[in-house]
């Protein structure tokens, strides 16, 4: 999840508590690689909040792009690009 743009786009709109829990898992999983990887994850989340999408190349010759969507069940069945609602984007966490 931490390597893919889909996972990073999801984390950009996740709650602070959920993002913190995921980041703790990734830190344990990645060990010494986490410092560099976290910088990439933080940059991707900022890009989602600023530009509405992020990209990553986690396999040779493969680049993927993702954008998060938030479904508003209470307001009907509309699907809203979350970057249009910057309040949904949390700030990158330590």
Description of the molecule:
- The structure is a single chain.
- This protein is of the alpha+beta class and 94 residues long.
- The chain has one domain (5-88).
- The chain has three helices and four strands.
- It has helices at residues 5-13, 16-30, 34-51, and strands at 54-59, 62-66, 69-71, 79-81.
- A two-stranded antiparallel sheet has the order 1-2. It has a two-stranded antiparallel ribbon with strand order 3-4.
- A hairpin with a 7-residue loop joins strand 3 and strand 4.
- The chain is globular and about 35 Å long.
**Rg computed from alpha carbons, rounded to a whole number of angstroms:** 13 Å
Q: Overall mean pLDDT score?
A: 80
Secondary-structure-based class equals alpha+beta
Low-confidence stretches: 75-87
Largest beta-sheet characterization? 2 strands, antiparallel
Total discrete domains: 1
Distance between the termini: 18 Å
Number of alpha- plus pi-helical segments: 3
Strands of the widest sheet, in order across it, are 1-2
- Helix proportion: 40-55%
Shape: globular
Q: How many strand units?
A: 4
User: How large a portion of the residues is in β-strands, by DSSP E?
Assistant: 15-25%
Topology pattern, helix = H, strand = E: HHHEEEE
List keywords for this structure.
alpha+beta, two-stranded antiparallel ribbon, 94 residues, 4 strands
Summed up:
The chain is of the alpha+beta class and 94 residues long. The protein has one domain.
């Amino acid at each position: 999840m931490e390597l893919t743009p889909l996972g990073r786009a999801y984390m950009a709109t996740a709650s602070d508590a959920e993002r913190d829990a995921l980041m703790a898992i990734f830190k344990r999983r990645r060990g010494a690689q986490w410092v560099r990887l976290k910088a990439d994850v933080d940059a991707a989340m900022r890009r989602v909040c600023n530009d509405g999408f992020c990209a990553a190349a986690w396999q040779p010759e493969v680049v993927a792009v993702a954008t998060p969507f938030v479904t508003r069940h209470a307001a009907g069945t509309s699907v809203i690009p979350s970057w249009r609602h910057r309040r949904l984007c949390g700030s990158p966490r330590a």
